[in-house]
Amino acid sequence: MSIIERLGKQAKVASRDLTKLSTVEKNQLLLALSDALVKSSAMILEANAKDVAAASEHGISEVMVDRLRLTQDRIEAIAEGVRQVADLTDPIGQVVRGYTNLDGLKIVQKRVPLGVIAMIFESRPNVSIDAFSLAFKTNNAIILRGGKDAIHSNTALIKVARQVIEHAGYNPDVVQLVEDTSHAVAEELMVATAYVDVLIPRGGARLIQTVKEKAKVPVIETGVGNVHIYVDKFADLDMATKIVINAKTSRPSVCNAAENLVVHSEVAADFLPKLEAELSGKQSVEFRADKSAMPYLANSIEATDEDFATEFLDYIMSVKVVDHFEEALDWINSYTTHHSEAIVTQDISRAETFQDSIDAAAVYVNASTRFTDGFVFGLGAEIGISTQKMHARGPMGLEALTSTKFYINGQGQIRE
Asked: What pTM was computed for the model?
C-alpha cells in the first residue's frame, strides 16, 4: 500500500468520525490547540530554525526565507488565527433554504462538509495550522503536503495538532502530513480520486500550473498574484505613494503584494519621481519600466513583456504609463491573475467603473492590496485565496469548505 493510499483511507475514516462532533466540541479543541501552540513555541522554533538554516545554505533569497521563518510573534499570530476560527459561526448544518413542494415533500437544503480535503502548499508553515483549523471547524479531514523547505516546521506544527486531538479523545487522522516531499508522491495525491474530494494548491505559478495539468481530483485554484495598482490622473499623489510603498514593500513575498504599477501619463512626471524619492533610504525597489516611464525614474531598466506578466515576490516592480483610463483597464485585464487589483483616484465615477470592469476576486479603491486576507476580511484564518469563479472566489473561509445536501421528508409520496 502506498503512502497516499494509507493516508487516504485513514482520512476517509476520520472524516466520518468528524460528523459526530458538535460545534462546542470543535471549538473547545481549537482553543486547546491555540494554547498548545504557544506552549510549544520553543520546540516549533527549533524545528523552524533547521528549515531556515537549510534555506540559507541553499542560497534562497532573504525575501523567500522570510516566508519560511517563524518567530514568537508569528506563532502567537497563528494561535490567534485558531482562536478566531473557534469564535466564528459554524456553517455545518445551517439551513440554506427550506420549503414544501407541490407534492407535499418537505425539502431542506443544509450545509455539509466536503469530506476529505488535500492541500499542496509551499514555504509558509503557518498554512498547515490555518488549513487544519478551517477544515476541522467544517468537519473535514485534511491531508497536507508542504514543501521540503518547511518539512521540519510543518512536522512540528502538525505533531502539536495531532497530540491535542488525541488527548481530546478524537481520531488524530483528521489531519495528516505527507512527510515524503517527493514530486512523485505529490502527483499521486493529485490523482487520489478514491479518497480526496477536493485539492487546493497554494503556492507559486509553477505549482498551480502543475496541479491544473496533472490533477484528476477536483481543484480549487488559488494564489498566484500578479497584482496591479493603477494611479489615475485624478489621484491624490501623497495617498498613492503611501499605498504603493505599502503594497510593494511591507511583505513582498506574499500573493497580495503589488507587482505592477500602472500610471496615467498626466501624473507620471510628478508621481514617479515622488515615489522613487520616498523609497530612497527605506527600501530599494528595482523598477522595470516601459519606455514612457523610464525618463521619470532615476534608476530603472527597460521592462520586457515577461516582466509585466511576472509575480516577482521580491523588491521588483514593473511600471507602465498609459494615456487613457480605458487603456489602464485593458492593460490590467490582459495581465491580471484575477487576485487583487487597485485604483487610486478621487473620481467616484472612475472608481466605480474600475471595480465593475476589472476581473479579479478583490478590487480596491484607494487602499493597499495587502488587505486581501481571510483574517482581515473577518473570515478567521484562510485556507487560500481563490482566483477562479466556480464554488469559491477570494479569501476562502469556513463557508468555502462546505457543500450542500438536500434533506427530503415525505409521507409515502410516489411520483406518478
From this structure: 0.85
